[in-house]
Amino acid sequence: MYHRSKMNTQLSRIVTLLNVCKVLIALTILFFITILVWGLFLPEVAFTATKGVAHWELNIGMLGSFSFSLLVPFSLLPTSMPYPYMFEVKTAFITYLLSNQLVYTPLLFYVLHLVTTFINHMMESESPFHFEAVAQLKRIAFVVIAYSIFGLFMINLAINIFVTHSLNISLMNLHYVGLLIGLFLLAVYHLFRYGVYLQEDVDTTL
């Protein structure tokens, strides 16, 4: 009983930490929205693009010496033509920032919701091998895999439509690290699901 209470205390702290993460993400989104709205009213000359080794650095000059930069990989913005004739920097900046927020913000909040639900099920049950808890792992794995495959593709598509006005799809736009994490979570799900079956056998025997 003591160990169970101690575990619930630790899990409650994790839930609290996840809630803090949600607040921080919300504040970050508010900051990006402020940048977007501000950028909409700035002239094209307030935006600059610098070609790096593997990325474009898109910069917006705001108040005084304050500026904000985005790094956009060449797989999204091609380098076949020299700046400034290839794309409008303001359009590229706003499209990339906005599409990133629209694609990844729902992912972050949904995954945090699933993790919180997973932990809550663990706290309510007497064993971590609970069907409802394990089902959350499966959902998290598939969401991460889906976003790893289609997330950058959707951003790439937005840039093709609004910035380059051309079709430039690259396999480099797959998020391979996220894909590996999703596959790992899927493997963990299958291990937990096997644990659920073992737990059910023990409960039936008792």
Fold topology:
Blueprint: H1 2-40, E1 47-51, E2 55-61, E3 67-73, H2 89-124, H3 131-164, H4 176-205
Antiparallel strand pairs: 1-2, 2-3
Helix pairs in contact: 1-2, 2-3, 3-4
Pfam families: DUF2975
Transmembrane segments: 20-41, 61-81, 102-120, 140-162, 174-192
Keywords: Membrane, Transmembrane, Transmembrane helix
Label this structure with key terms.
206 residues, mainly alpha, 3 strands, elongated, DUF2975, DUF2975 domain-containing protein, transmembrane helix
Provide structural commentary:
The chain has one domain. The chain has a 3-stranded antiparallel beta sheet, covered by helices on one side. The radius of gyration is 22 Å and the shape is elongated. The protein starts with a helix and ends with a helix. The protein contains 4 helices and 3 strands; from the N terminus they run αβββααα. Helix 2 (89-124) runs antiparallel to helix 3 and helix 3 (131-164) packs antiparallel against helix 4 (176-205). It is mainly alpha-helical and 206 residues long. The model has no long low-confidence stretch (mean pLDDT 82).
Proportion of strand residues: 5-15%
Q: How many helices?
A: 4
Q: In order across it, which strands form the biggest sheet? A: 1-2-3
Helical residues, percent: 55-70%
Uncertain segments: none
N-to-C SSE series?
A: HEEEHHH
Biggest sheet architecture: 3 strands, antiparallel
Assembly state: single chain
- State Rg: 22 Å
Mean pLDDT reading: 82
Given the helix and strand composition, which structural class is it? mainly alpha
Q: For the record, give the distance between the C-alpha atoms at the N and C termini, rounded to a whole number.
A: 19 Å
Strand tally, please? Answer: 3
Number of domains: 1
Morphology? elongated
